[in-house]
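Page 37, continued from 36.
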């Protein structure tokens, strides 16, 4: 029954993203809301939990189940218990009150951010370095002594200014306006941290982080922290060298205008990183687009995935689809066994989702017979004019590479139960790993094979590919130290029974780990960072780095290893990782594929760091 319902839910969810009919899109969105409410209510059914628990506690019955069915019972028991189904009625009611309060705090936090778009003013001279387009149609105010331009804290205004404003005083002033606009959110976050701790204790956990990581690949906060500590130890030296480069640029600028160098601060970070990047690499991205036409990129990626996974992609003629722009493909094994089919829907139209995304329309599963999976990759590229193809930006190619990999992740899974099929079934700290492997492999090793000039057919110049690869590691030390800091902070606030001041701790840890301070200014950066308060993200910021570390380990140790037949590796990766989906523990699958437990060595090596952890 679950298999059948999951397929129905998937189709209903999908239509809101692609249907040409507004009524259908609205009905689809409403259907998803009702489905989520139903699922949430179901997890509160303590009578259902008692039945699940009866099976779970029956050792003989559990032993008689297949591995996948046993994992299903264990997953269900955990889900219901984590929602409070095992609590007494009084404690369950207390838990419900805490959940409602957390929901209110999340809404308040985000509302404060959305409603506090502050403004400030600068003269044209104070905005030296900004392009002319920045001033077009911008609001101005006439004041004594001249005209000032109004600048808001919206992303478009803020980031362009921080990247290009020559005067430090301007960047500092804008930084302070941006990071003092939601100060009351600090108290909101403090309250959320306190309530999450109470909720965790009520459910039998020592901390919220312990509760949050239990169903994930890391399993414990200590495992996540150990990975972050290892990265910090190995990244600090590289980050310090990169900071010295940035500091030298600022010193030179200060000397040029006769000012004393007083330090390098957060408001300098983007400006000098941008400046250094331009000095080191000058990539003509418009020239690059000529080598990245959509038809050629898709064709090249199809060829790679066919070779890598031993499959064949066949385009269908005159398929029955929801719009004329949609193309439909069948996926077959090399031995002509049918796998499933997928759709591509690449061009913009009114009401369509603007993002590049993948949707599972039907999960693959087995009842009496195999139900074949159906997926769709959706984008919103501008339609080509006349016979000219769509020319992609390099970041769009990266996203397409990853998302097409997600299609194959859905299609190649062979779980018997729909609940374990494809991307949606993987742990939150592993779900991006298979996609990153395929995307990074494509970008680092295959781009020169699939990219050619859309007019002449000439392959992309080797120097251009080399430049692109080098750009990816520019400033990697400082950039990843920032990510390490945010992840460590996230674990720190949610893995302690002690009361913490979210803002003071944020500022002290930022300087200590990220190496760049706020210059002694009173700032509240954490008050506008929503991922520390959201239920789905709290304690899980580490997951992004965790995924990158694991994908780099697999890529270097297996796919890029000298003398290795890539097709054999691809088939092994498919068999051990992709086909299992969520039916097996991801750490077990990853360890089996690598032949050892994963580590950080390959990730650090990919950004030029010789890991001290393995000396």
């Amino acid at each position: 029954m679950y298999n059948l319902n999951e397929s129905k839910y998937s189709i209903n969810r999908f239509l809101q993203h692609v249907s040409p009919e507004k009524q259908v899109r609205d009905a689809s969105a409403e259907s998803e809301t009702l489905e989520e409410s139903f699922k949430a209510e179901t997890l509160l059914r303590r009578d259902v939990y008692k039945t699940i628990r009866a099976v779970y506690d029956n050792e003989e019955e559990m032993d008689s189940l297949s591995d996948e069915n046993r994992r299903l019972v264990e997953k269900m028991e955990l889900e219901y218990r984590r929602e409070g189904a095992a609590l007494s009625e009084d404690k369950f009611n207390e838990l419900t009150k805490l959940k409602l309060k957390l929901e209110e705090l999340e809404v308040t936090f985000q509302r404060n951010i959305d409603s506090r778009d502050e403004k400030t003013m600068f003269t044209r001279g104070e905005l030296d370095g900004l392009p002319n387009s920045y001033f077009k149609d911008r609001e101005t105010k006439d004041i004594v002594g001249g005209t000032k331009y109004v600048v808001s804290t919206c992303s478009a205004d803020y980031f362009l200014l921080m990247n290009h404003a020559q005067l430090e005083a301007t960047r500092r002033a804008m930084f302070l306006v941006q990071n003092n606009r939601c100060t009351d959110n600090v108290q909101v976050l403090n309250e959320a941290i306190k309530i999450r701790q109470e909720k965790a204790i009520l459910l039998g956990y020592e901390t919220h982080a312990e509760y949050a990581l239990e169903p994930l690949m890391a399993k414990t906060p200590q495992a996540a922290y150990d990975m972050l500590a290892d990265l910090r130890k190995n990244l600090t030296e590289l980050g310090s060298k990169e900071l010295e480069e940035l500091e030298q640029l600022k010193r030179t600028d200060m000397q040029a205008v006769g000012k004393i160098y007083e330090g390098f601060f957060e408001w300098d970070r983007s400006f000098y990183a941008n400046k250094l990047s331009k000095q080191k690499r000058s990539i003509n991205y418009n020239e690059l687009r000529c080598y990245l036409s959509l038809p050629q990129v898709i064709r090249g990626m199809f060829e790679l995935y066919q070779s890598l996974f031993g499959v064949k992609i066949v385009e269908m003629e005159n398929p029955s689809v929801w719009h004329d722009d949609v193309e439909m493909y069948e996926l077959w094994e090399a031995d002509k066994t049918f796998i499933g089919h997928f759709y591509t829907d690449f061009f913009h139209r009114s009401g369509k989702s603007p993002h590049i995304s993948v949707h599972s329309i039907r999960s693959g599963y087995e009842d009496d017979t195999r139900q074949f999976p159906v997926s769709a990759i959706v984008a919103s590229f501008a339609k080509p004019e006349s016979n000219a193809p769509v020319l992609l930006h390099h970041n769009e190619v990266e996203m397409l590479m990853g998302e097409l990999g997600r299609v194959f992740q859905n299609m190649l899974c062979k779980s018997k139960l729909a609940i374990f099929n494809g991307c949606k079934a993987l742990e939150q700290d592993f779900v991006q790993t298979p996609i990153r492997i395929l995307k990074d492999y494509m970008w680092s090793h295959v781009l020169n094979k699939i990219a050619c000039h859309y007019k002449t057919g000439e392959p992309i110049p080797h120097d251009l590919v080399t430049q692109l690869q080098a750009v990816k590691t520019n400033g990697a030390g400082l950039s990843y130290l920032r990510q390490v800091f945010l992840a460590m902070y996230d674990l720190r606030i949610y893995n302690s029974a002690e009361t913490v001041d979210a803002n003071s701790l944020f500022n002290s840890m930022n300087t200590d780990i990220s190496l760049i301070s706020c210059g002694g200014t009173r700032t509240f950066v954490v008050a506008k960072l929503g991922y520390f308060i959201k239920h789905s993200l709290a304690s899980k910021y580490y997951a992004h780095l965790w995924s990158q570390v694991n994908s780099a380990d697999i890529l270097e140790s297996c796919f890029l290893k000298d003398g290795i037949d890539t097709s054999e590796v691809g088939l092994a990766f498919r068999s051990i990782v992709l086909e299992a989906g969520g039916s097996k523990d991801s750490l077990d699958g990853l360890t089996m594929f690598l032949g050892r437990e994963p580590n950080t060595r390959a990730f650090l090596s990919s950004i030029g760091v010789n890991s001290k952890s393995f000396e």
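The two ends are 54 Å apart (CA to CA). Flag for discussion at group meeting. The CA atoms of residues 194 and 499 lie 7 Å apart.
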